[in-house]
Specification:
Rna Polymerase Sigma Factor, Chain: A, 7 helices, mainly alpha, 2 domains
Amino acid sequence: MRRGIARVQPTVIPAPSWETRDALVLEHLPLARAIAVRVYENLPVHVDLDDLVHAGVMGLFDAALKFDAGKQIGFKTYAKHRIKGSILDSLRGLDWASRDLRRRHKQLEEITRQFVATQERTPTEAEVAEQTLPKTASPLPLIGLFGLLALGGAFTLRAVASRVR
């Protein structure tokens, strides 16, 4: 050991017994279902509630194993965050689109909505491209946007490319 540097021993938190963990999980199963139902209400129809409940129960098990009573926080409060996080992680795993692609899709929808509200008609491809892309934009970072536009079917690469030039 070097002179003047004290060696710090890591604090080991004992794992809860199986009986304690099982009791916590059984007591809070309705919480996992309630959180799953709340998340489910804001999702598309094709998402299965049972899958969300399963992910929530896995988060509840994780919370029961990692809970530290010495942190001055109740188990229910701690478990809520772990359950919801587990549900959201499972949804991200099911989603084929990246967060950036979803953000760009929302941006296109918002531009279209604003255009319809002000002009009282559906925008053309060129009008949406004009609102979306800066005049000096390089087409290289827009590859992900092209995929989104192709998926939407409402826009063509021609309209976007004409805006980039």
